[in-house]
Design brief:
Number of domains: 3
Low-confidence stretches: 1-36
Mean pLDDT: 92
Distance between the termini: 70 Å
Number of helices: 9
CATH class of the largest domain: Alpha Beta
Helix content: 10-25%
CATH architecture of the largest domain: 4-Layer Sandwich
Largest sheet: 10 strands, mixed
CATH superfamily of the largest domain: Alkaline phosphatase D (PhoD)
Number of strands: 24
Shape: globular
Length: 519
Amino acid sequence: MADSAARHVVALARRGLLRGAAGLSALAMLQPSLARPQAVGDPFTLGVASGDPWPDGAVIWTRLAPDPMAAGGGMAPLPVEVAWEVAEDERMTRVAQRGSLTATPALGHSVHVELRGLQPARTYFYRFRAAGHESRIGRTRTAPEPDSEASIRFLNAGCQNYEHGLFTAWRHAAAEEDIDFVFHYGDYIYEYRSRPGSRPLARTHHSADVLTLEDYRARYAQYRLDQDLAAAHAAHPFVSSYDDHEIENNWAGLISQRDGLRFPDRTSPEIFALRAAAAFQAWYENMPVRAAALPRGVDITAYRRLRFGRALDLHVLDTRRFRDDQPCGDGRVARCEAVARPEAQMLGPAQENWLHAGLAASGARWQVVAQQVFLAERPFVDGTRSMDSWDGYPAARARLLGMLGGRDAVALTGDIHSAWANDVAARPGERPALVEFVGTSIASNGDGGEAVNYAAGLMAAQPHLRFHNNRRGYTLHVARADRVEAIYRAVPYVVRPDAPREDRGHFVTFAGRPGVVAA
């Protein structure tokens, strides 16, 4: 039987039917069961999560890992049957749906259940069972029906460097926020080895730089073992994206940061593609996303659109995978002729066309562009601009603003580890096309302070930069018929536990009158 199965796999590969993670899963199912039995122990150490809510359902997720930091999470390389159920009450007595599916070693024994047939704008509870064990109970919420007039409450958060601080902000989000979803803009993990000399560390990464699929799986496991992050996932559905640190700092397209002259050990595109493929698979395995985001090597479609009643369309963008390499390096540059190139790509043609079509067809009051990097112009006082932000791609930014012009629109941003609120115009001095609310970090850059040292000079010279704060936390947004609010939640410290939640700013933008206004 083993020889027959192997010949069948080879035949599938020759016909091009065995590709990517899905093909690996099929291969795993065909292997003879000669491996050791599954390890004894609770397989639900990494918790549960839900995401990508639709009016009739959501994704519910878990990943089996009785020994989460070990190879394979401590699981034997065998498929495992996992049962799931969804209920209308937290005691799980009014079961709405139940079923089972197979968790395979090819996908790290991750489980993604795409629920359908639920009621819109409803809270549901869910759990999993496997190998005689039961997961914690998670809570999720479906999106409202398309013609609903309900207001939508959501968070913008990300940048959670495990070494730089505790995830106390997630504890507050889990226990204190009544919301429809969390948009996680990325930097869910950091790929670095422990760097004890860079700043005071709250805790340390478990290994060297992550490079392989097993490395990435273990790094995600270390982050998901954080109880505050686990509580936030169990409390709210997440709409997850990625930025750079899910693979490598400041990667662009399929080009490593280590491709320039300042890195003597340059990484070739072929070698970086291997790392990227491993990172994309690990991201999929650990996020509550739909099968449409399942990567096939380096091919991944993480951009997508979610509708929340008449209040808003959420356009989740990918500002990494399809962009050009940063012009003149990925740092701050004063002069760079390549910045002016009219064909500059941040989203890539396919994603731009997808966004344009979605905006044209939308009947929602607010177009919320959920993305990663700083959108507004931000020339520093020394004349430099960040080439890793939209300032390095002004032609692409102009096309984006052209698509959004005349619409009630808001951009959600992260990446720079501090909070901002910006008017974004096509040209300086013009009426804003939209407002950008930049979320701070959950932990990256440690405790921080009330402001970064360059903020005062930058804001004095750039009046469209309307608000700044440098504490850690997240942003609570409320989308109503006539306005979108942004409440900047912060914690005063992250290098020691039990920080209280504080508010640092409250702003709105009104329908038909784009601009940041203090509430």
